[in-house]
C-alpha cells in the first residue's frame, strides 16, 4: 500500500524564478517518510516514546533522485511513499513526487535502523516490520 503526503510549494522552496530548488525534494521526501512512520506508530507522541525507549534511530544510507519535471510556486505536490524492500536492519522506500498525476521526481531511499547510543545497526523490531507489512 502507498502512503500519500501533500505539500504546498512556498516561496522559500523556490529559487528566484519560482522553480523549486532541487535539494528541497529531499526535504519533501523526508517529511513524507516521517508521516508514514507516524502512521505506523499511531501518533507523534507514541513515535517519540518508542524511539526513546528502544533508542532506535533511522539514518539514510543511500539515496538516488531522478528529476522529471520542475515544480513551481503555489503547486500542491503529492509524495507517494511505498516500502519497496524490508530487511532485518534496513528498508528501502520508493517515493514518487507528483503534481496532478505528472511525475516531478522519483526517489529511492535506503534507511538503516541504528542504536542511538552506539550508532551501530540494530534489527528492526518485530512489531514494526509487522506494521509495515500490513500497509
Largest sheet: 5 strands, antiparallel
Measured as a percent range, the helix fraction is: 25-40%
Radius of gyration: 16 Å
On the 0 to 100 scale, the average pLDDT is: 90
- CATH hierarchy: architecture: Roll
Low-confidence stretches: none
Rough shape?
elongated
Structural class category = alpha+beta
Order of helices and strands: EHHEEEEH
Sheet-strand content, in percent, reads: 35-45%
List the helices and strands and how they pair.
Blueprint: E1 3-8, H1 24-40, H2 44-54, E2 56-67, E3 76-86, E4 90-99, E5 102-115, H3 126-134
Antiparallel strand pairs: 1-3, 2-5, 3-4, 4-5
Structure description:
- The chain has 135 residues and is an alpha+beta fold.
- A five-stranded antiparallel beta sheet has the order 1-3-4-5-2.
- Helices cover 27% and strands 39% of the residues.
Brief digest:
This protein is of the alpha+beta class. 27% of the residues lie in helices and 39% in strands.
Structure characteristics:
Thiol Ester Dehydrase, Chain A; single chain; alpha+beta; elongated; 135 residues
